[in-house]
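Progress against Task 2.4 (sequence-to-structure conversion) is shown through the following example record, which the project officer requested during the mid-term review.
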Amino acid sequence: MSELSYLEKLLDGVEVEWLRLADVCEFKNGFAFKSGLFKDTGLPIVRITNIDGKDVNLNDMKYFSSSDYKEDLSSFKISFGDILIAMSGATTGKVGLYNNGEESYLNQRVGKFIPKPDILQSKFLYHFLLLNTNVIYVLAGGGAQPNLSSNVLMSKLLIPIPCPNNPEKSLAIQSEIVRILDKFTSLTAELTAELTARKKQYNYYRDQLLSFDEGEVEWRMLGEITAYSKSRISFDKLDKNNYVGVDNLLQNRAGKMQSNHVPTSGNLTEFREGDILIGNIRPYLKKIWQADSIGGTNGDVLVIRSCHESILPRYLYQILADENFFEYNMQYAKGAKMPRGNKDAIMKYRLPVPSIDKQTRIVTILDKFDTLTNSISEGLPREIELRQKQYEYYRDLLFSFPKSDSINH
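Structure tokens generated for the chain above:
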């Protein structure tokens, strides 16, 4: 990579000093906005739930009115390019870059870094913090209820500053590192935007292709053309690849991964190639996979088998992977905290059964979109994963400055 070669020359022989964050930037804690005064419109508040580990997610925003507070809140404003960090809760230690042009305000337990511009390039700090998310989590105490202290963070976390005695060259080197890493993040962002657009297109075609008027095709109940698997398979014929529990079925129709657990005794429900496996715990997670081999599963996974010549197994999968089915499944699910699908109600689900030729056409179109938007082995999700790994590789490499033996990170 030519940029790396150029950077090696730029770094050749330069001094690197590891400094405390407190030496190179300031830190601002958020304001204690009162949840009882949150509004649906007004001035936006960024909370810990808006920090997603990369950006500031503007979904589920809360708002306030300045007339509700006597304090001067101007110092809590967030501007475009600010680097934020979650100080407690499930997102503790996660960083977010504020890329929105709208002015927002900093809530309590969210912190803002203010780099000293003559020492530290802002995006250099951002990429460095992304690299050190786990280190920051440890500084917060880890465990079930981590709580990050700004004093600990700023005094304990050390950042490498090249050419500390030559600010102009130091900032030039930092900018080069940022430029290289931003290339990868930009490509990932483009692919993610493309994936979002393709998913919208996919959903549009799904709705069009799977919508039929009442008299246009025959409608059948699921139980008339399928059945739950009653065949059994011995545990000794199963391994991590062909045993499927609810835990290794992936959410949102993403298929399955290898199982971390394989039964060591007994007989289990058998599935065969073409059967459809549906996670029966918390149906809203949309766990569904069409089997490509013989294997086994347990009672938390439904195995639905086509048993009528009027329906193609792959068409059946596309019908059951549709949003309408999951909404129906949740409507009849039993239990509040851990809802389970109602097996009897599921078999009463009505589905359209067009001609085999039309089913084949529908499957061909939807499978192409399915691979493009959902496949973790090919398609856009796979490409995004590869670009992210590439970014992480070069980020690790570019921040691998030597440390003095006297430094304890």
